[in-house]
Amino acid sequence: MSAIDLARAERAELCDLLDELGPDRPTMCQDWTTRDLAAHLVVRESRVDTALGVLGGPLAAWTERVQNDAASQPFEKLVRLIRTGPPIWSHFRLPWVDGQLNTIEFYVHIEDVRRANGETQPRDVAGELSNFMWDRLKLSGRLFFNSVKNGVILERTDAESGELETHKAKGGKPKVIVRGPATELILIAYGRRDADVDIDGDPDAVAAFEQASRDVDEESLEENLESDQVIEGN
Length: 234
Fold this sequence. Notes:
about 230 residues; alpha+beta; Nonspecific Lipid-transfer Protein, Chain A; four-stranded mixed beta sheet; about 55% helix; globular
């Protein structure tokens, strides 16, 4: 499957899950309900004027107002807008943006919804999705773990070869080793503390890593990843 195909599959699965659960269920995104999450996704793809506000600062109030207005719409409409994809003027219509950013975005939010509603076990995902996540971790490790002061070694346990794959995401000492399936490693990179990973190393370094991973600013991370994609031309 191509990255675009993966993004479309994750988009459809998330929409099916939202339709199934309805608007008032919890998520792992702080105090957001499924309605709030749906509104966020609609605004993210359709309102370019809110992009800077997600980073905080003087425009944050405007972004919050737009998202609150979106959340006041019928939930079924919000899910339908997500399912049909971004409007023609959105940069998320660009194939490389859709494939490279939306695959991660929708995968992470599927898990935000699943795990907040009793589905604590990782999904049985396609090998292509796991490979995609591992490739993104290898390419953008310096951004995923920018807030971590110590070194970070990733160990992937779900490679198709059956062998352990290793990547130095960030240099520095002391090092921590984060071990798990690629799809769980991407969750810890996005600050999801419920990710099914093992973290080994010096106790103080592990504690510092766990705190830094909890403090990840997801929206800032996406902005940086998008810029990284533009530079690389992918």
